[in-house]
Specification:
Oligomer: single chain
Strand content: 5-15%
Largest sheet: 4 strands, mixed
Structural class: alpha/beta
Helix content: 25-40%
Number of helices: 7
Distance between the termini: 32 Å
Order of helices and strands: HHEHHEEHHEEEH
Radius of gyration: 15 Å
Strand order of the largest sheet: 1-2-6-5
Shape: globular
Number of strands: 6
Amino acid sequence: MGEGFFTEAAKKFMHDGEAVGELCHSTKLDSIDFASVDAIFCCGGHGTCVDFHDNATLKSAIESMYAGDKVVSAVCHGPMALPQCNKPDGTPLIAGKVVAGFKDSEEVAVALQDKVPFMLESKMKELGAKYESADDWNSKCCVDGKLVTGQNPQSSEACAAAVISILS
């Protein structure tokens, strides 16, 4: 990980054998009973632009969690999962919601704007979301009811804290 991204929290995680072991043996999404889960947290990274976008299993999980008044959270590129999702009334899940996600200017800064399926900030606005952001590479976490979103890697800890707060 590059400077600024390999945080103290990331270092702590990497030195926690039990945590790394859990990550290496994660549960397949389609085998989870989401009625028994209180929150879903979609982490970012450019891989999510392929894995989360147009993913029927993830879409179903997020929609059922949202409809069940459970916490739906995503940070950085994790919100790539949200544009495909709808509220029970059929409208876009993020329409009218205050959200954050990887900024268009941050995507341009890393020169991957031509590699992602869509520019996340623009797509969220197009779907009627109330997109908010901080300056590039600064933390921004938005909480709208039980929807928690964050702008970039620097927002990860704030998003996690917001989810824990809602669940507490």
